[in-house]
Amino acid sequence: MNQIHKWVLSGIIICSLVLVANAQVTRKNIDQLTPEELGAYEHAIQLLRDRSAKNPYLLDGYAWQAWVHNKNRVSVPKKNTLKQGKMNPTRFYEKAASQTYSDGTYGYPGMCEHGKDIFLVWHRAQFYYFEQILQNTDPEGTIVDSKGNKYPTKDIGVPYWNFTQKPSGKKFPKAYENKKSVLFHEGRNLENNPEYKEFTSPELLASLLDEPDWPTFGGYVNATNGGYGTFEAQMHNPMHTPFIGGDMTYPSRAAYDPIFYSFHSYIDYVFEAWIERHGTDDITSTDYFLRAEQPQEFNLPDFNPGMGDRPNMGQAKLYFDIKKLGYQFKSEPDDTIYTKQQIETFLQDENGMPLELAKSDLSPYYKLFYEGVSRKPEATVGKLITNDVTVKPASKKQPYLYTYTEPNASSSYQIDLYMHPKKVKAEISSEKFRKKYFVATSTAWLDPEHHHGSNGMMDHKLNVDLTKVMNDLDKNFDKQAFQLTINHTKL
Amino acid sequence: MSVYFDPDIKNIFAPYVQPMLEVSIATDQGTFSLDLSNYESVCRLSQRIKIAIEGYMPGKETAHPMPPGNNPLPDRDIQKYNDWLDAGMPEKEGAETFEGVIV
Ligand code: HEM
């Protein structure tokens, strides 16, 4: 072959690689996939599992990709001899992650960012790589996986599970309940609490998305204070636990369950919906580097690793334009986010009057969080915390923010908040009290086994922004003595 | 009396070197290891360390107070660390001070 031929040929190869990497794929609702599309997704996941079964330390295998979520360091052998054999995937991946090889080097799969302003963008970056890996497992459908299937994978977009709608299966999308599918995963709360069907409502989602203040919705800056945004604490966390359960209960194992990916694909849909409404100008920490060790061949064209010595996925700001990341969402009518008007109508009583906090028998917040879903505030009394409050207007400049700190936090917990006149006794066990005075719930999602791979327990903080609650109260109870009662329970 | 990285600050951090080597710290300059026994590494992240070790003090709350587990360093060690920062982070007597980037 002469030199010109070589250039032409390598040009074609580079172009076709670029094409695979940059093609616009569509992330669809998992219930709307054609059998071929679902087959292709299952095939790609199976191929990732097959890779890891032979070598769990491959960056483009299932195990490593799951470790990206929360195994900050693993020992990687010079030559792998560990094979999965008949072992179940979770046990095998955990075993592989805990080995120490004397001839090995350290790898740094990743540390998910939770409880801070880069939560949504960190997961988006994780998904960018994951989706590229899936597309490139078997672009043209020429490889037979260990289940005997082959499908072209080049057009895969990670399908999303809209968990604010009734599930197509008993509790999850049907595709995830099919025991023969690689998407099925042992241990989820399928049989426990069968009455728990849907946990978070589209009304709650729409009202959270309406919040224009970035930290309130998306999370607080880390280096000083940090803290969950409303979406993470009020929807994402309780879905992990108690709703889904199994490996999804633990940050360090969550992605062993393939439902993690469809769950977070929807979370990315929500992130995009927030950006569509409010833009990206107010998003904070956009220069932050996102820690994870990913296959370099999928780095974005303007990727730059910065000056540190640990691997990363580049800066947060690379990940705001989904077109550049090669995907778009296709939504079904049920996926359309409710309008402000619809929420206002929803928050009326049977006579069409707006529900009023501490006046109506039903708090508008209770209705928002709990109507039409099986989730309810905790009726048993846990640790009670009370704060005296004088009702007065709050504003963006002077927000009313409640911060709960859990010392030595070792496992997930929930706080339910009630705002009631000081003269009304907090009776958590009374449904009447809960319905009338409930204002918010917030869940911390923590790893009882280890936090970020260390053995140290962290103090943990939950911020709950009650600015709107305070202004609602101010309409009827200006300067009156109220009490904020918090019911803290372990999950 | 002057405070130096070696031995003063190094001794304070000695019990915590191994667990912190597992962690990657994200900043707007890159992602970094923190080797608490290494002069350059501690200087580079010196402001993040200050925030972390002061994180248990009232009014100075931070997302990740260090060392974790409601286990603050004694006040005198935090003071020593701050004195060391104020003195320009000298490594040891006669040695040149850190001139790299603080992230
Ligand atoms: C005096 C001793 C220590 C110092 C000076 C220190 C310093 C730091 C600093 C500066 C950070 C970054 C904080 C941030 O991003 O806001 C950090 C994070 C972290 N440290 Fe330490 N550390 C110490 C001890 C420990 C110990 C003993 C452990 C484990 C047993 C530990 C585990 C961690 C973990 C897991 C993180 C990451 C938190 C996250 O980003 O989610 N540290 N440390």
Form type of chain B: globular
Global Rg of chain A: 24 Å
Bound molecule kinds, no repeats: protoporphyrin IX containing FE
Strand content of chain A: 5-15%
Total DSSP E strands of chain A:
13
Which blocks of ≥5 consecutive residues of chain A have pLDDT under 50?
1-22, 451-456
* Protein structure class of chain B: mainly alpha
Cα shape of chain A: globular
Give the termini separation of chain A: 66 Å
Strand order of the largest sheet of chain A: 8-13-10-11
String of helices and strands of chain A: HEHHEHEEHHHHHHEEEHHEEEHEEHE
Number of domains of chain A: 2
Walk me through what this model shows.
The complex is a heterodimer of chains A (491) and B (103). Chain A is of the alpha+beta class. Chain A folds into 2 domains: 3-335, Di-copper center containing domain from catechol oxidase (di-copper center containing domain from catechol oxidase); 350-490, no CATH class. Chain A is built from 14 helices and 13 strands. In chain A, the strands form 5 sheets. Chain A has a 4-stranded antiparallel beta sheet. Chain A is globular, with a radius of gyration of 24 Å. The N and C termini of chain A lie far apart (66 Å). In chain A, 48% of the residues are buried. The model of chain A is unreliable at 1-22 and 451-456 (pLDDT under 50). In chain B, 31% of the residues are buried. Chain B has one domain (5-86). The mean pLDDT of chain B is 93. Chain B has helices at residues 5-13, 17-21, 39-44, 46-53, 75-86, and strands at residues 25-26, 31-32. Chain B is mainly α. The longest helix of chain B has 12 residues, at 75-86. Chain B is built from 5 helices and 2 strands. The interface between A and B is large, with 43 and 29 residues. Protoporphyrin IX containing FE (HEM) sits between chains B (13, 16, 19-20, 23, 25, 34, 45, 48-49, 52-53, 63-64, 66-68, 73) and A (111, 222-223, 451-452, 454-456).
